[in-house]
Design goal:
single chain, 418 residues, alpha+beta, 3 helices
Length: 418
């Protein structure tokens, strides 16, 4: 009778263990399920490290910012007209120069020799022209003398023919003699006409020969003048009033024709050259107002030119300066320009967030009423400016939002400020 009772006890103990295990497993599962449904704790952020701004409603000025430098409006690059070696440097960068100021002196013995030979060729050609003129004038005078002799004979024969005609009327001269005298007169008239024509042709021929020789003299004179100008160009002049900006040569340096010798500019006539990011330049147009900050004063200006090409992710915008240049303004001075695109009369806007681009949808943290908690909201942005951006949807005037970079908290919908 004791054996069945012992077996019943064992079964009861086993049953209790199974029940306890099932209850424990169910408890563990319920606890895990509850923990999984709990929200993660909001991270804490130091309030002094975030940038806050309040959403406003009213007028907003759209602007585009660009960095750049001041540059002369008119720059004169002075090239070497001929090859040469730098003999002397008379002026240094920074010096004020006039159009006839000699900057440096080059030497080229071969060029000087060619100029001297060209002068001699001109002198020789002029002497040949003078000799030809004398020769042709002598031939012309000989031809005129021959024409004068023929004209004299013609007049004598004509007088004889006229006398014979009078005598023939009286019967004192035979008809044959009269006919012979008239025939001689006609022959001399024809000869006189031929000599006159020959004199005219000779004058034309002489003029043609003289024209050829004069053209040769002019050609040689032009070549000599070019050589003289090249020799004169060895004394390099500024060519314009201004300030010598660059002189990238040294004494003794051998230069080729066309090499840049100097750069002259007028520092009183400057313009700003701004580099505007290619993503923002689409709204920039000629005639828009610009403010140029030289770090020593602000100068108003106007957009004068927009470069059609993009270089290194930026577009060059030239700004004509309208105001008086502040002290210290000079070429290559670093400046910052703000271009006014348009004025919006009544929009909802806020300071431009560190991660928001115009016409995009982003998530921003908006402060709640307690001022210590910020919740994520979806915001649709509109038109942007340098420091502000339009709010299309998601925020209302008076809302306070975090503008600084919050990408480290993208996994959270709420943050705590302390």
């Amino acid at each position: 009778m004791d054996r069945p009772r012992g077996q019943a006890v064992k079964r009861a103990r086993l049953l209790r263990r199974v029940v306890y295990g099932a209850v424990l497993s169910a408890g563990v599962l319920l606890a895990a399920l509850g923990l999984s449904r709990l929200k993660s704790a909001a991270p804490t952020v130091d309030a002094s490290t975030v940038w806050l701004d309040t959403v406003k409603r009213g007028p907003m000025v759209r602007q585009v910012r660009g960095l750049g430098t001041l540059a002369p409006k008119d720059i004169l690059w002075i090239p070497a007209a001929t090859p040469g070696r730098v003999e002397r440097i008379l002026m240094r960068p920074g010096a004020r120069v006039e159009p006839e100021t000699v900057l440096l002196v080059l030497s080229n013995p071969q060029l000087e020799l060619e100029a001297l030979n060209a002068e001699h060729e001109v002198t020789s050609a002029e002497a040949e022209l003078t000799g030809l003129e004398v020769q042709l004038e002598s031939q012309r005078l000989t031809q005129r003398a021959e024409l004068a002799r023929v004209q004299s004979e013609c007049q004598q024969v004509k007088a004889t023919a006229d006398r014979n005609e009078l005598l023939a009327r009286e019967g004192l001269v035979a008809d044959l003699d009269l006919q012979l005298s008239k025939l001689a007169f006609q022959q001399l008239l024809e000869r006189q006409a031929i000599e006159e024509k020959r004199l005219a042709i000779q004058a034309q021929a002489n003029e043609a020969r003289l024209a050829v020789q004069r053209a040769e003299v002019e050609r040689l004179a032009a070549a000599a003048s070019l050589r003289r100008s090249e020799v004169k160009a060895l004394r390099v002049r500024a060519g314009a009033a201004g300030v010598l900006q660059e002189l990238p040569v040294e004494v003794g340096e051998q230069l080729a024709a066309g090499a840049i010798l100097a750069k002259v500019a007028q520092p009183e006539h400057l313009q700003a050259e701004l580099k505007v990011p290619e993503t923002q330049v689409k709204d920039v147009a000629i005639g828009q107002r610009v403010e140029i900050d030289t770090r020593n004063g602000v100068i108003p200006g106007t957009v004068a030119r927009i470069d059609p090409a993009v270089r290194e992710g930026a577009v060059t915008v030239d700004v004509a300066l309208d105001g008086t240049l502040p002290p210290g303004a000079r070429p290559d001075l670093s400046v910052e320009g703000i271009i006014e695109i348009e004025r919006l009369s009544d929009v909802v806007y806020v300071g431009r967030p560190a991660f928001g681009q115009p016409n995009s949808v982003i998530g921003m943290f908006r402060l709640e009423a307690d001022g210590k908690t910020a919740g994520r909201v979806t915001v649709k942005l509109g038109r942007g400016s340098v420091t502000t951006i339009e709010i299309v949807e998601g925020l209302r005037p008076g809302d306070r939002v975090i503008l600084s970079d919050t990408s480290a908290y993208d996994a959270y919908d709420r943050i705590e400020l302390r």
